[in-house]
Amino acid sequence: KMTQQMRDLQLAQARKPPGPSSPNAAKRLYRNLSGKFRVNYTSFDEGSLAGRGEKEKLRKSYLFQSNAALFEAVELQDLDRVQELLKQYSPEELDLNTPNSEGLLPLDIAIMTNNAPIARALLQAGAKESPHFVSLESRSLHLSTLVREAEQRVNELMAQVVNEMPNTDCSEKEKQLKAWEWRYRLYKRMKAGFEHARVPDAPTNVHLSVASSSSVQVTFWEPLSVNSAVVTKYKVEWSCSPTFSPPLGEAVIDKLKNLHFTIRGLVSGTAYYVQVSAYNMKGWGPPQASVPPFAIPSNWREYDGRAPRRRGQAEALDHLLGQVKTIHQHCVCHEPCKNQPQSRKHSVSKSLKHLFHPGSKFLKTLKRGLYLTAIFYKDDNILVTHEDQVPLVEIDDTYSCLLMQDFLWFTKVSCMWDEILWLRQCVTVSQSSCSCILQTRFKMLLAISQMQGLLGVQDLGQVFFEPVKDKQGNILIVTLKEVKTNQTFESVRWVPICKLQTSRKSVSSPEEPTALDTLLISIQDKLVYHQRSSHALSPGLYLGYLKLCSAVDQIRVLVPERLPNILCHVKIRSNPNISREEWEWLQKMASMEEPISAEPEAETSQNHLFQELQVAIKELMTLINIPLQEAKDFRLYSQEVLDFGGQVSFLLLLPPSDDVCTAPGQNNPYTPRSGFLTLPLQIFELGEER
Questions:
Q1: Host domain of residue 378
Q2: pLDDT tens-place string over residues 271-280
Q3: Which of 534, 557, 575 is the last residue of a domain?
Q4: 288-297 tens-digit pLDDT
């Protein structure tokens, strides 16, 4: 029995699959198995690549069809379809400048059929003419060849249709015949359009202006002629001689969205003559000299060698702030803070996740006092606490100082959100002996730090230009910040503004609304103000109107609601530069004691500025609701041109000296129409800096 059991055991062991004889063998087995599985995955990836290849082929086929559709739309003169395709696809996707089998581009067909609207649409999209047409003779020969081949093909198909019996092939031949007959007529129309076309007339309204001390700018309009072919490019030439001999340079403009060109790298104080000519498929037309005929690169500062007002100011202020910080580093008030770890700056996305939990220190209701609230908004939603309340912290519950002075100080602090901790450390010296004003401002810094800590974000946004008050003695200082990210936050709710306003109405008293009620009722107006105050003017020279009004504790400035960070204004022209000659003429006008006719000579830059100013003053008087006859007592500020970043500049129009600033109780007979507001001067200055 024992022998039989041993035999059975040996047989069973022999039937078992052989296992790995060592750990290395096990690893080899794993690698082999992994390799087999990797083969399967590779096959899957190759299938994906093949699928992507098929998709790419389909995409190219689709784009090829769109290219064919564009040619068809141009040939059929379907402007709507052309505009639709140009909007739907990029020029590269349409192969806009790749010739078809006949050597033609969409723009060639449009200009040779004299379809100006389609040609202009193609030109603005970046279309070019075919490079095969190097001369008038080559274009004429190419068109003649196309007409001859199309006519030959029509004759061949017509003979086949006439001689063959009616069947399926004959029906197909008839379709081909109709298509070639239509193409034959198209080529004949293109050939006729080319033969009857003539070179373009000269461009119109060619105006030359001084762009800087080393550049001039020329603007122009299309030729007035309607019989010539579509203009596809322009040439700007310049020289120091009125005969353009020798020429100094030229530039070809084939991007026709904006008809202007700036000639750079010129010598200040040198006169430059400029002329412009137009080109179509028949060649270049005659040049048109500019008005004025020449311009001298210069800037108004060259009149008296004045340096820019703000040159080095930002660097000087940064240096001064650094010196102040260095002095305060060893101050007693900083000793407790030396060993504190540097506070970590939280990102908006991370900090807001852990905001507004039930244990936060945001206030729910108002008592009598001074408060800080931060409005974070995104689209039509506003950020609130779990109690459906805007973030609110207390500044001072026994406030009794001058509000406006402290408020204006707070707005200046808003330019240093990152420096609040340092400012707090500087104000803590002998706090017990400080005045009421210093104590209040220290409490403001504490409230800012509290708000920053609870929100986990240092930038609280822009301060609204006036506090919100109620009859119970509550005062709200409001900051506004737009959140432009698309993140979602776990423990924070974005609530629609209308929903928050509705829920607030249900718990508030209509007879005695609190400052919070007033804030939420007017929240849309405040958000609009915040958005508009960050808008910028387009480049150009503007005429601004300076009007101030004074109160007991502040001076306010008149601004338009649509752009509250800029004075009331109208645009004079797109070129922001004032040349030396123009500024010299303005100085002569300002020195005249009696208003007399001071119209400069015709065809000069001074005359053009004179005409532009006349139009701008009339427009501005209408805007601010002042009778035009009163303008004779107004004057231009002649001390300087206000320059904002080199792209925007202002000339100031001032009312009579007695009316520049309206005193308290003084009636202003001409009040602006709706659409204006008055800002505290310090708030306006901060907004202009932003």
A1: 369-534
A2: 999 999 999 9
A3: 534
A4: 999 999 999 9
